[in-house]
Write a structure and sequence with these properties.
Chain lengths: 157, 556, 430
């Protein structure tokens, strides 16, 4: 096939368009930072297998997290009341969290059963590392039924 | 040497003439024309203009006022930049310095704040005015689109500037606002179908907007650059284009034909009144003087407002303490209100984008060439009624969100104290999947085809009377079934909105449109009415989702 | 018409601009500063008139010239260690170490007087500034805003006796510190009343209610002031704490015991201490609580004193009484176990209303337990579901016995039980 002047001109234009599109893409990529200076919201909570059945409060003071193990699944609740942000307490005898500030009550699943809280407690993103340690990310939260019961907000152990 | 001679010598000097070109002012038509043509700023005007275009009640000066406010914002903004450092440690302190330590700093910040609010209002009113006078119609469609983009940029400018003081009001408004971006379908980590593309919190559109996963140092810097450099540059370029197009397409207040007096039969437009040939007048001084007065009142208004009221500044931003309630800035609070009725991907992403696209589509959908250059209710009742309905809806939502929402976003009347405790909202329910799918299919299917395939036009009066008789009867029946009176009223009110805007009006006014135009118009119309209906279903019957596919985060 | 508008606009623009400049130029601090200069100059001139020594006259004249030439200016102390700027000395010129190097003067009223006491030598102002101790808004130069008595400033000026809270933040073991008497008294009361039985402080203590370790930092957004009756300007952490001590906490946090909004929620379980506390005691307790903060202070600002030695006991009953108080048991059971405090909707003796429910009075009930049963009870506590309700439809009582097995062990537990058995009123109740 002959390379005529005209067809070569198209190639030239194509090169320019590719350059422009490439520039746009590069500019867009440039805007995504590769390092961010946020305090890590992700932490290693220790061996996942060692969390007891039910609600564990051992991470509450350090990380504001409750780890709940239920029927072979683990999930991590953020210990922050969705009403005004106080830290609720766990009451194993009543099987609920109760907020000391305005009395909102939550089930171990995080649903509101009483009080002024407008929405369920947040669940954090969880995963089990290759070492068997539970990794909890407090930046990625979910509280919608249907979504919070699915990975990455629960993990099977 | 006396004063006139001195003046003449000065004006005729080489220096003066090299700068201003024109010689001594003799107030001849040539001088006046030269004043407009020979001046970089004034030559955006034509030299002569029809007297009708000078009437206050035509433009209200809104476009010019918007531009003036943009200039005020540029100047005050540049001055503020001398004292403002966009870091988390210093931004708030700099606000305090402006208030307490810098000469006229408070006035400057107040002016910037209030001019921004005034500009939003002016731009919105300008859009309404342009719409009502038909100035968006051919050949000005494209300029209308640029105007819509400028409105969007104005909103974005205001939103990015909102964060900069770095107080509690701002970071939470911006947190609420940017969380909407997280709900973008496919591209936001909370949006429907995003998991299919592997989008998560650290690579979605919210992440790039914030420069991180939470509103923080990067966000402040990004918003600062966007607010001070990027968006103003884009807006400035579009403003130039906007003005240039006005000049090229000619000013809309000078149509060749004006409708004749209303006394003619049926109010139809009489051809060519004598006004079409009216004598033009010179822009200098007639138009320029009026512009001066409008500008003067605008500056006066901003100055007074800034003296009387301080720009808000709350506590230093604290990302661990959420104020209750935390509200978006007022112009987005309507969207936030919609969040109570829709999932974020609809309320925060689909609806605003559809509003923008829908506004831009209007001049291409509406083929009616009549009604340009004057307030033309009679020429296009449907177009104007629908548009005003949309605007009204928007401001009602803003009013509710701004004045009627208290802690936990519960309903509080504007005169009610927020200290009163309110019951939590009642439980909600979803339609089963099949019913929701059928309902949506029917709504859009019948909604689009119904008005078009009606054999003959239905006249309004009997149709409306019939509806309310039917509503009274059916309402009484379902009242007996145990629904409350409020629910019955809500049901038939919202159905009436659909009946009027989604059925009666289209079957009368849209039946002669070409298919592409008709389809576009009906889809947008049905979506707008659908928003109203969904609000009604939620308020009256606690219906949460019509169609729920939680696994894809796709709920309507 | 347009011509008239033209004049109207131009003249009003100029007028309002001048008004704005005038407002800006007449700031409140200028009044105080120039008044201070004038007072100082008048004092020096008086001194000059009385003095005859030429050398001294020269010095005084020099001083007068210095004050005369001193312009009105915003004065500030920049505290790099704390990332703060304090402009208080703009009005309180007598406390500016550069304008008034002696840091003393003869004026007696604020804002002119110098800092009372000798504090300026131990706490040099260029290093400590003002707001570190006094709080308030250091950046502000207007009275109300600077004193922090405005909306959106959560740390208003601390006045005595609450000011002692600031001493207690850096002075560890402040019990013997001369200036911090109120805080010391407050800490004493905190221990005596057994607050720690329900309120842990930084994890030490019971978990029945909120941890008070950072109560002074509590953001006002987390407080519901709606039942306090306080005006908006009086909303502060200080008032919130003090109200718990001067009013019945049940009135301030009534919650929803009738179940109007769903499941019934009991009111605050905190006992009504206002009956036994003098106002001055409530203030002292508040001052102590206001010292509990997690705001970071660089380590070199901390001052340590030797802690009180731990008491030793030979007598197990005495030791048991000490343990009883150490863990705050009297917070619920009363001092010496003599009177159980109110526990909403718990079943108590002679009860006709939910708010007459009470914690057990130990002197009456411990006698019904064996030593082992008592130990078991202390170790495992009584979960709130096991607290018998007065009204079965009513809320779960707010107070309960937390399990103490991780905290009270060994000798302490043995002696505590010995003590408890010693206070039982044998045979009277049954």
């Amino acid at each position: 096939m002959d390379v005529t002047r005209r067809s070569f001109l198209w190639a030239g234009w194509a090169a320019l368009v590719a350059f422009a599109v490439g520039n746009l893409a590069a500019a867009a990529r440039f805007m995504f930072p590769n390092v961010i200076y946020e305090p890590s919201q992700k932490f290693n909570a220790g061996p996942a297998a060692e969390f007891p059945e039910g609600v564990s409060t051992q991470l509450t003071t350090a990380w504001r997290i409750w780890v709940v193990r239920k029927e072979g699944f683990l999930y991590a609740l953020l210990a922050r009341c969705t009403h005004l942000g106080c830290t609720p307490n766990w009451f194993s005898d009543q099987n609920r969290f109760r907020c000391p500030c305005h009395g909102s009550n939550f089930t171990p699943g995080g649903d509101v059963i009483a009080g002024p809280a407008p929405k369920p407690l947040w669940r954090c993103r969880v995963e089990v590392a290759s070492t068997g340690d539970l990794m909890i990310d407090r930046a990625i939260l979910e509280n919608r039924p249907g979504l919070r019961e699915r990975p990455p907000f629960v993990v099977s152990v | 040497m006396n004063f006139p001679n001195l003046k003449a010598a000065l004006i005729n000097s080489q220096i003066w003439r090299s700068i201003f070109r024109s010689g001594i002012w003799k107030d001849t038509p040539r001088d006046r024309a030269g004043h407009v043509i020979g001046n970089l700023w004034l030559h955006l005007h034509p030299v002569r203009i029809r007297p009708r275009a000078l009437q206050w009640t035509y433009t209200w000066g809104l476009g010019g006022i918007s531009f003036l406010l943009f200039l005020i914002l540029t100047v005050t903004g540049v001055f503020l930049m001398f004292y403002y450092r966009p870091t988390m440690e210093l931004a708030y302190r700099d606000m305090k310095d402006l208030e307490f330590a810098i000469t006229l700093g408070k006035l400057l910040r107040n002016s910037h704040r209030w001019a921004a609010q005034a500009m939003l209002v002016a731009v919105i009113l300008h859009m309404i005015r342009v719409y009502l006078t038909g100035a968006y119609k051919k050949p000005r469609e494209f300029n209308w689109c640029i105007g819509v983009l400028l409105l969007t940029l104005t909103l974005f400018l205001s939103f990015t500037g909102y964060l900069l003081p770095w107080d509690q009001l701002d970071i939470w408004a911006v947190t609420v606002g940017t969380n909407l971006a997280a709900a973008t379908p496919f591209l936001g980590y909370e949006g429907p179908f995003s998991s299919l593309l592997g989008v998560h919190v650290a690579n979605d559109v919210r992440f790039v907007l914030l420069g991180g996963t939470v509103v923080g140092e990067n966000t402040l810097l990004r918003f600062y650059v966007l607010h001070c450099v990027f968006v103003p540059l884009v807006a400035g370029a579009l403003i130039m284009l906007h003005f240039w197009r006005i000049r090229k397409d000619s000013f809309s207040a000078a149509p060749l034909a004006l409708p004749g007096p209303r006394s003619s039969a049926e109010g139809a437009a009489a051809p060519l009144s004598s006004a079409s040939d009216e004598e033009k007048v010179e822009v200098w001084p007639h138009l320029v003087l009026r512009e001066y007065v409008a500008a003067g009142f605008t500056v006066l208004f901003i100055l007074l407002w800034s003296i009387l009221q301080n720009a808000p500044l709350e506590e230093l931003a604290n990302p661990t303490v959420t104020p209750n309630p935390s509200k978006a800035p007022w112009y987005f609070v309507g969207l936030q209100e919609l969040l109570r009725y829709f999932d974020p991907w609809i309320a925060g992403v689909m609806i605003p984008n559809l509003i923008i696209v829908g506004l831009m589509a209007i001049p291409y959908v509406n083929p009616n060439p009549k009604g340009v250059g004057y307030y033309a209710w009679r020429e296009s009742p449907f177009a104007i009624a629908t548009f005003l309905f949309g605007i009204l809806l928007w401001f009602v939502l803003i009013f509710i969100g701004y004045f009627c929402r208290g802690p936990n976003f519960a309903w509080y009347w504007p005169w009610e104290s927020w200290l009163v405790h309110k019951a939590p909202p009642p439980p909600t329910w979803d339609l089963p999947l099949w019913a929701g799918a059928l309902l949506l299919l029917f709504y859009f299917g019948f909604g689009i085809l119904g008005p078009r395939f009606l054999q003959r036009e239905i006249s309004f009066k009997p149709a409306v009377i019939f509806y309310w008789i039917f509503a009274a009867a059916a309402g009484a029946a379902i009242y007996l079934f145990g629904f409350t009176a409020g629910q019955v009223a809500a049901l038939f009110f919202f159905l009436f909105v659909y009946y009027l805007f989604g059925f009666l009006m289209p079957q009368r006014y849209l039946r002669d449109l070409s298919w592409p135009r008709y389809l576009t118009a009906m889809v947008f119309l049905l979506m707008m009415v659908g928003v109203v209906l969904k609000i009604g279903a939620m308020v009256g019957f606690n219906l949460h989702y019509i169609l729920a596919l939680p696994q894809y985060n796709f709920n309507i | 018409m347009l011509r008239k508008l033209f004049y109207l606009i131009n003249f009003s623009l100029l007028a309002f601009f001048l008004l704005a400049i005038r407002q800006d130029a007449r700031r409140g601090w200028k009044k105080y500063q120039s008044r201070y200069y004038r007072m100082e100059i008048a004092r020096l001139e008086q001194e000059l008139a009385q003095s005859s020594d030429p050398g001294k006259r020269e010095r005084i004249q020099e001083e007068i010239r210095r004050w005369r030439s001193m312009g009105l200016q915003i004065r500030q102390i920049i505290l790099r260690d704390f990332d703060r700027v304090d402009r208080c000395i703009t009005c309180h010129v007598g406390m500016d170490p550069f304008a008034n190097p002696s840091l003393t003067n003869s004026f007696t009223e604020n804002p002119y007087q110098a800092h009372p006491g000798k504090l300026s030598s131990s706490h040099p102002f260029p290093r400590y500034g003002c707001t570190l101790c006094h709080q308030g808004q250091g950046l502000a130069t207007e009275v109300a805003a600077a004193h922090g008595a405005v909306r959106h400033w959560e740390r208003p000026l601390l006045k005595p006796p609450y000011l002692a809270a600031s001493c207690a933040r850096c002075h560890v073991n402040f019990e013997e510190l001369p200036g911090a008497k109120a805080a010391a008294l407050g800490k004493d009361l905190f221990d005596k009343l057994g607050c720690v039985g329900c309120h842990a402080v930084n994890g030490e203590g019971g978990a029945v209610s909120v941890d008070l370790g950072d109560v002074a930092d509590k953001p006002l957004g987390r407080v519901d002031f709606s039942y306090t009756g306080l005006a908006r300007e009086e909303w502060s952490v200080k008032n919130w704490i003090e109200l718990h001590l001067t009013r019945d906490p049940m009135e301030i946090v009534p919650n929803d015991p009738q179940g109007k909004f769903g499941e019934p929620i009991p009111p605050s379980g905190m006992p009504p201490f206002y009956r036994e506390l003098q106002p001055s005691q409530a203030q002292a307790l508040t001052a102590y609580l206001l010292s509990l903060s997690h705001e970071s202070v660089p380590h070199e600002y901390y001052v340590y004193a030797s802690p009180k030695p731990k008491p030793r006991f030979a007598n197990p009953v005495e030791h048991g009484r000490y343990v009883f108080h150490k863990y705050g048991c009297q917070g619920c059971h009363g001092i010496g176990g003599a009177r159980g405090v109110r526990n909403f909707n718990a079943l108590g003796p002679d009860q006709t209303r939910m708010d007459q429910g009470a914690e057990p009075t130990l002197t009456k009930v411990v006698g019904t337990y064996t030593r082992e049963e008592l130990k078991e009870k202390i170790r495992n506590g009584v979960p709130s579901s096991a607290v018998v309700k007065f009204n079965p439809e009513g809320p779960i009582p707010p107070l309960y016995m937390p399990p103490w097995k991780d905290k009270i062990q060994g000798r302490e537990l043995e002696d505590l039980v010995t003590y408890l058995l010693s206070i039982a009123e044998k045979g009277q109740w049954w």
